[in-house]
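Hi all, posting the design record for the shared folder.

TITLE: backbone redesign
STEP: 1 of 1
STRUCTURE INPUT:
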C-alpha cells in the first residue's frame, strides 16, 4: 500500500487529537484514532486516562455502526494483548475495518508488532510509518522507558542573559517573568515526576506542584499531580517541608539509615526509598532513574540547582534542556547555570542541538538536546 496525501492528512489530524491526552494518560502513551470512510471522517477518539477505553474503541463508538470497510488511522500500533482493557486490534476487526494506517510500531514488548500482525493475518491492509517522527515526539518518555528502561529526563533552568541562575547569596526568585513561570507549569503537568535535590529543597522549600486548573490545561476532570521526587542522601528534609502538605505524593531517595528521621518524614506523608551511594558518596543517579522507570515514570522533569543538574549532564542522563533566559544581567559573582568541573578543555565541551527558540512574554525559551553524536 502506497502512502497518499490523504494518509498524511488524516494522520496529522490523529496526532493533533492525541496531544489532548498529554496531561492525563500517564503511565499510558498518548494515542488517538480517526476512522475514515469514503474520504469522510466518521469517528475519532483519543485515550484519556489509564484504565479507560483506548483511542480505537472511543473512535469506533463515535463512528457508530457504519464502520464496515472503513480505514482507521492510529498514532500507535493497536494493542494485541489484554491489559487494563481488551485488545484494540480485535475491536477493529469486529467493527469490519479493512485498512489500518499506523504512525509507529508500539515499543512495548507485549505488543511490538503483534497487533499489526494480527490485523494482517485477518486480511486487513496495514500501512506503518506515516508521520512516524511526529508520533514518536508524542511519547518520548514512554518509548525510552520501553526501549532503555529509563525515563525521558528534561531539565528546566532559568538564567539571566549572562548565564546566571542565582546571586552569590543564593537569592534567585524571580529571574523570569510570570509568563515564563506559567509556561513551566505546562511542562510540569506533562511529567510523571518532578525531581529536585537537597540543596534546592533546603534553600527554597519548593512546592513542585502543578498550579494550573483543568480549564487552563484544557482537560476534563481533576488535574493529576506528578510525584515529587527529592534526592536527599543524608536526610536533611524537614517534616514541615511545604510539599508534604500538598496534594500528591512525595518520594524521598536517601542513603541514610536514621530510623527516627525516616519515621518522622513518613508520618508527614513522605515515601522513603533506599538508594546506594556512588564512589564519591553521592546518590547514584542512574540507579534512581532506572528505579523510577520500573515504577512506570515515563517523563521526569528536573527543577534543581547547578550541582544536581550538572551531575545529570555530566553522566549523560539528560535528554532535553528547557532554559528560560531573562533580559537581565546578574554579574560575575552570581552562580552559573551548571556545575561542570570535569570540563577542562575545549574538546570536553558538551554540544547541544537547539530545537526551538521563542519569546515567552519578555523572556526567551530555549529548547535543546545534548548532542549524542558529539
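Okay, here is what came back for every position:
SEQUENCE:
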Amino acid at each position: 500500500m502506497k502512502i497518499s496525501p490523504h494518509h498524511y492528512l488524516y494522520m496529522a489530524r490523529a496526532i493533533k487529537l492525541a496531544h489532548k491526552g498529554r496531561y492525563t494518560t500517564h503511565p499510558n502513551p498518548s494515542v488517538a484514532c480517526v476512522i475514515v470512510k469514503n474520504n469522510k471522517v466518521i469517528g475519532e477518539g483519543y485515550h484519556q486516562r489509564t484504565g479507560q477505553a483506548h483511542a480505537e474503541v472511543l473512535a469506533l463508538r463515535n463512528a457508530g455502526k457504519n464502520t464496515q470497510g472503513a480505514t482507521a488511522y492510529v498514532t500507535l500500533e493497536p494493542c494485541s494483548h489484554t491489559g487494563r482493557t481488551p485488545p484494540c486490534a480485535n475491536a477493529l476487526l469486529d467493527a469490519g475495518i479493512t485498512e489500518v494506517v499506523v504512525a509507529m510500531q508500539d515499543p512495548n514488548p507485549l505488543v511490538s508488532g503483534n497487533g499489526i500482525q494480527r490485523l494482517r493475518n485477518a486480511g486487513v491492509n496495514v500501512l506503518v510509518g506515516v508521520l512516524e517522527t511526529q508520533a514518536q515526539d508524542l511519547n518520548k518518555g514512554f518509548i525510552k522507558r520501553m526501549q532503555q528502561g529509563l525515563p525521558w529526563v528534561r531539565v528546566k533552568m532559568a538564567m539571566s542573559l549572562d548565564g546566571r541562575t542565582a546571586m552569590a547569596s543564593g537569592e534567585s526568585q524571580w529571574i523570569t517573568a510570570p509568563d515564563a513561570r506559567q509556561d513551566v507549569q505546562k511542562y510540569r503537568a506533562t511529567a510523571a515526576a518532578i525531581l529536585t535535590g537537597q540543596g534546592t529543597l533546603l534553600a527554597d522549600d519548593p512546592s513542585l506542584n502543578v498550579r494550573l486548573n483543568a480549564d487552563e490545561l484544557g482537560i476534563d476532570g481533576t488535574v493529576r499531580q506528578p510525584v515529587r521526587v527529592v534526592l536527599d542522601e543524608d536526610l536533611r528534609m524537614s517534616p514541615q517541608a511545604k510539599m508534604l502538605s500538598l496534594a500528591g505524593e512525595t518520594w524521598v531517595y536517601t542513603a541514610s539509615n536514621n530510623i527516627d528521621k525516616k519515621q518522622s518524614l513518613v508520618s508527614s506523608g513522605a515515601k522513603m526509598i533506599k538508594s546506594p551511594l556512588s564512589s564519591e558518596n553521592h546518590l547514584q543517579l542512574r540507579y534512581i532513574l532506572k528505579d523510577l522507570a520500573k515504577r512506570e515514570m515515563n517523563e521526569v522533569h528536573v527543577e534543581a540547582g547547578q550541582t544536581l543538574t550538572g551531575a545529570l549532564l555530566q553522566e549523560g542522563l539528560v535528554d532535553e534542556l528547557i532554559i528560560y533566559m531573562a533580559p537581565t544581567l546578574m554579574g560575575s559573582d552570581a552562580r552559573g547555570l551548571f556545575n561542570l568541573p570535569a570540563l577542562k578543555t575545549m574538546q570536553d565541551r558538551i554540544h547541544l542541538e537547539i530545537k526551538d527558540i521563542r519569546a515567552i512574554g519578555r523572556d526567551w525559551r530555549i529548547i535543546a538536546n545534548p548532542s549524542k553524536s558529539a
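COMMENT: The chain is about 30% helix and 25% strand.
Let me know if anyone wants the other runs.
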